[in-house]
Amino acid sequence: MPPLDAGLSSERSTRVVDGGRVVEPSALDGLISAAATWLTGLGVAQGSVVSWQLPNGLEAYLLYRACWRIGAVAAPVHHAAGAADVAAALDQVEPDLTIAGVDLPAGARRDAVPLTPGDSTWPPPNVAGAGPWLGPRPSDPAVVLFTSGSSGRPKAVLHTHRGLLSKARTMAAVHGLTPSDVVLMPAPLAHISGLLNGVLVPGVAGMTSVLMSRWDPDAAVGLIQEHGVSFMIGPPTFFVSLMGAAAFSTDRVTSLRLVSSGGSGVTPAFVESAAATLQCTVKRTYGSTEAPTVTTSEPSDAPERARETDGHPTGEAEIRIADPTDGSERPAGVVGEVWVRGPELFEGYLDPAMTAEAFAEGGWFRTGDLGWLDELGWLTISGRIKDVIIRGGENISAAEVEAALEAHPKVAQAVAVGYPDDRLGHRVCAFVVAAGTFDIETSRAWMESRGITRFKWPERVVPVESLPLMASGKVDRAALERLAAEG
């Protein structure tokens, strides 16, 4: 397995679209070299760490590719990150060079080199004699990515060239992507989903990558129609807002053939609704910053499997369901902690203590997610260990409550969280995005009609127009827990 620059360059070059800027495959390699030359002039060498805070766009794309050409380590920070998160990220990676396309928050500037998105003079023309660069080995670190930090300090996750290229090649094959496909990528390139599906997968498949600097559902409808977007991937929140956009009509998204959705809130009801509205294949995926896209379904798999489960392992990935307390393996159909291992797995965290805690004997990564495998090896995620709501000594899966609520025809999205109670410890609060009235009485009647055990019923229902999101596009459960606790 070659390092990323050679691995991507050896395939068909991708086409990159950033607003009015379109880079054809014939011009891309020269721009990558020009960006690498620019970095070299700023002192970047093999093994250097380069951080940047930039929105999705050509600049972020080229910086990734230029770092890999030199053999530098890319360590991007989300473009909307605040002062505390930026400082925490930079403190962990201690970059040799920091680049900012927006004003870094006070106290986190770190003498950043300015880079204005859309500047037609960047990268400057290639300097004669620049390169060739020595480049990295496949086992060398390629990127440091930061987890969303929904609870505590974001973790710095280290991936190698070999691991990322292996995953990109696997996913291009699993999704059946070809040079005729076009991906729309609104997820931040600073996160694993944006990096994998906006940079790496298009690089190995030779397809077009359309980058969005921020998610705007009305603008997305226009981009899908204009560029013939055939593939999208992201959390349900993207697609719920897309289908609810004022500009949306099925006639404008006929090019879509595949939507892959992961993260909390991917329920059978969402998959069924999205498939009917978007008139394309919609399937579930499971992965994380540490272990990207571990499971999904393939075109030859039964549609009901793609709807009812989170898929089967991709490539050489392995899954084990373990007892969270002693690590013993649990049989098919029994919920436990999801453990993962495979070539796409991260090398570890920058914090050695975190790495030691995260891995079990045999190279198994403890994901912190709960789920079960059926007899055929298909995975269903039931939630995070920390998202289990304990009410009067009974364990309630937030994911189970959400799936039941989202099966109601009025409910587009639902998130269940616990709120403190002196007698029971916690009770269940549901935040719902619904068309029309959906109150506590409606919820109770619906849960009873579904045969849901009574102690799992929400005891508070809060209608909302939209759910708070983290920078990754995932629902901010911590924010909802705070709102529920405030009453």
Description:
The chain contains 14 helices and 26 strands. It is α/β, with parallel strands linked by helices and 487 residues long. The chain folds into three domains: 4-214, ANL, N-terminal domain (Rossmann fold), CATH 3.40.50; 295-384, Roll (Luciferase, domain 3); 392-486, GMP Synthetase, Chain A, domain 3 (2-Layer Sandwich), CATH 3.30.300.30. The strands form eight sheets. Strands 16, 17, 19, 20 and 21 form a five-stranded antiparallel sheet that branches. The chain has a four-stranded mixed sheet with strand order 2-1-10-9, sandwiched between helices. A hairpin with a 3-residue loop joins strand 24 and strand 25 (425-434). The radius of gyration is 22 Å and the shape is globular. The termini are far apart.
